[in-house]
Amino acid sequence: xxxxxxxxxxxxxxxxxxxxxxxxxxxxxxxxxxxxxxxxxxxxxxxxxxxxxxxxxxxxxxxxxxxxxxxxxxxxxxxxxxxxxxxxxxxxxxxxxxxxxxxxxxxxxxxxxxxxxxxxxxxxxxxxxxxxxxxxxxxxxxxxxxxxxxxxxxxxxxxxxxxxxxxxxxxxxxxxxxxxxxxxxxxxxxxxxxxxxxxx
Length: 200
Fold this sequence. Notes:
Helix content: 10-25%
Strand content: 25-35%
Strand order of the largest sheet: 2-1-5-6-7-4-3
Number of strands: 7
Mean pLDDT: 93
Structural class: alpha+beta
Radius of gyration: 19 Å
Number of helices: 4
Shape: globular
């Protein structure tokens, strides 16, 4: 994975401010990929929803929720996935953006007992005559996304739906959040900067 696909000057300025450039590069080195793993396939194809980030031709962002039955997002190639567009409000905010700016970000979340997050960034295209549409009942359009970066994110702030308690990792008065386990893993522990003291 080349550096310029993940980080730009704005990322680097903040990484340097917070001494996190080394861990950022290490996370890319160890976790970021351009082909879907078997685990990625199982997670994505088992998901009943994801969040889709797009922006228009002037860089104005939009984020939408996309849902369906398990399997409505499919891995269709080593580095490609597809999902249908179902009937909605007719605004076509996300798919309209894709037609003028194909860069997208997808966030898959499992909020169960073992929370998990997976991000897919790539280039999307929208079609109304893709042969795959026939395999998605109710699809009015089909979106294919060619991945340029697939990577997990730490799930520590995810809470179980219905709970009234925040994540144990969420900072709040009178509570010292624990360090997430991954920061102690052999692949990362020598790259993690010291935690900054909480602001008063």
